[in-house]
Here is the input.
Amino acid sequence: MRLARDLHDEIGSNLAGLAVTGELAAESATDDTREDWREVQRVSNESMEAMREVLWVLGAREEAGLDLVTRLQRTAQRMLARQETKWQAPAENPPADWPAEARREVFLFFKETLANIVRHSRAKHVDLRAQIENREFILTIHDDGVGFDPAHVREGIGLKNLRERARDLKGHFTIESSPEKGTTITLRAPV
Here is the structure.
């Protein structure tokens, strides 16, 4: 928790200062440098949000509390800024007694899946759905990207981590994909 406080206070204030500097510099910059300063501001703001996510995962940000769904939505907005997204959220959050460790695993599973979309899929549209049904949290992520043949893909660290996170949740995940047809990943975990 001390490390989380230090990260928030030291790095957070530095990033906030960079964001303000970028904003002020962009307002007075010439046409040649204005976009560069806006990029400094944008990256600073994204880095602050990423730091908030790390603090949330560590349990150091109480204001994020149990609201996993809102955290997933914000992360999708930030990471999928170049894709058109559609989000379907459950009517309620997972039960309050669902362990924080399970929420953390779901969140990191989600981030890894979105990172794979950004890195590999070339998707234009991403549909995201979270639902709670029969005491099971179901997360479905579908993209319209290039897809792949799951039977012939070399499993890297990302897919291995997804498999391990699903196992740690006492759940499972599936991948449905084929070349040029996009990819659907579904995580199912008991709540």
In short: The radius of gyration is 19 Å.
